């Protein structure tokens, strides 16, 4: 029995010696995640047109029935809404800017034959703040999204003069959300 005890003690000592001298190596790695802002112009609720309606020819101006743009962003997203110059930009007046980066006074509606151009403008508020497409300068910059629900933004319009021939006039504007 004494021999068995010494043999067992020797085996345990060797096992402990082997475990004490085992080599190890470590390496750190990261677990990463980036959550980005996300915004889109709604595809379920289409923008409503800025409609000046039927007007009588005069030297007076016309204010539109307001249009709406619908945007959905994730909660806390910071975003800007821009409006381009439209299809007929610069046709009613010689102005700086471009269709993608308009300045005030450059938008125009045209008749079907594209023979008459009527200047008009779009604003982000009733006080006629020009609504363009340059982030930080002429875009509409609402507060951060309070939640992830769809938000509506009003587009105001004005035609400075109605002294043009009878007819139907239109333009197409592209809205862009930048986030």
From TrEMBL:
<feature type="domain" description="Spore coat protein U/FanG">
    <location>
        <begin position="26"/>
        <end position="176"/>
    </location>
</feature>
<dbReference type="Pfam" id="PF05229">
    <property type="entry name" value="SCPU"/>
</dbReference>
<protein>
    <submittedName>
        <fullName>SCPU domain-containing protein</fullName>
    </submittedName>
</protein>
<dbReference type="InterPro" id="IPR053167">
    <property type="entry name" value="Spore_coat_component"/>
</dbReference>
<feature type="signal peptide">
    <location>
        <begin position="1"/>
        <end position="22"/>
    </location>
</feature>
<dbReference type="InterPro" id="IPR007893">
    <property type="entry name" value="Spore_coat_U/FanG"/>
</dbReference>
<keyword id="KW-0732">Signal</keyword>
